[in-house]
Amino acid sequence: MDSGVTSDEDYWLAAALLEWQAELGADEALSETPVNRYELPPPEAAPAAPVAPPVARGAPELPPPLEAPDAVAIAEAAAAGAADLDGLRAAMADFEGCELKKGARNLVFSDGNPAARVMVIGEAPGRDEDAQGKPFVGRAGQLLDRMFGAIGMGRAEPGENALYITNILPWQPPGNRDPEPAEIAMMLPFVRRHVELVGPEVLVLMGNISCLALLGRKGITRLRGAWTEALGVPAMPMFHPAYLLRNPAAKREAWADLLEVQARLRHGG
Ligand code: URA
């Protein structure tokens, strides 16, 4: 059989086949004489040739591979899409970027009255909070309730005396270890949106982790008792109630800080 180009039809068929092969990436012509590759010098002896990606003529260039979106970017998009607190809770429950979720029994979102003037932000749930799905319900939480009770405020109180409570992390870290910077960073978009949706007049930042996350600073002994601003809201850093349980002498300073909060609510900043 004659394999040459014998007619216009054969020519166009051959051209179409060639183009199709080029599109598939077969862009190298084979030589007339066969090459016995077993007789070629071993690779290390072969001269190094520059490696260029094969470019098929006529084939569209592929875009560079996309970077996987990081957890912070996913959290930001999810938090921004939450129109209200129920939406925010659902967005956090759906968030798969944080490994802590796998070891937690419950998402600990918040407790108290979202219409409260004061929003308390703690660190992360402990064992009791993980079991009940509510923040500050263990020993430290009971002390927190007594502290705010002393200025007439509480999570079950209505109106002016109401309190709203949440944490930087909604899942318990294993063994109650400190939250890691990456965990804080990926949950921060949810905290920001949380504060935006609640719109408190005052934030109370409980302890070092809360200060680190929202002020970018640690050192609660120096930070406590002085008004600052977090997320555009007046903020009072205070000793964490768990610290007060271990260091009862520091309750004096905590009491002074609570009176500061009370004075601001009564007379403004
Ligand atoms: N400590 C916190 O910071 N938050 C809680 O919910 C419980 C203990």
Task: Describe this protein with a few key phrases.
single chain, 269 residues, alpha/beta, Uracil-DNA Glycosylase, subunit E, six-stranded mixed β-sheet, 11 helices, 10% strand, elongated, disordered N terminus, binds uracil
Description:
The chain is an alpha/beta fold. 42% of the residues lie in helices and 10% in strands. The chain has 11 helices and 6 strands. A 6-stranded mixed beta sheet has the order 1-3-2-4-6-5, with helices on both faces. A hairpin with a 2-residue loop joins strand 5 and strand 6 (233-238). The chain is elongated, with a radius of gyration of 32 Å. Bound molecules: uracil (URA). Residues 122-126, 129, 135-136, 138, 140-141, 167, 206, 242 line the site of uracil (URA).
C-alpha geometry: elongated
What is the helix/strand order?
Answer: HHHHEEHHEHEHHEEHH
CATH level-4 homologous superfamily: Uracil-DNA glycosylase-like domain
CATH level 1 name? Alpha Beta
Widest sheet: strand ordering: 1-3-2-4-6-5
Supply the number of helical segments. Answer: 11
Give the total of domains.
Answer: 1
For the termini, the CA-CA separation is 98 Å
Query: Strand percentage, roughly?
Result: 5-15%
- Total count of strands: 6
Task: Write down the overall mean pLDDT.
Answer: 87
> What oligomeric state is this?
single chain
**Rounded radius of gyration (Å):** 32 Å
Per CATH, the architecture is 3-Layer(aba) Sandwich
Bound molecules: uracil
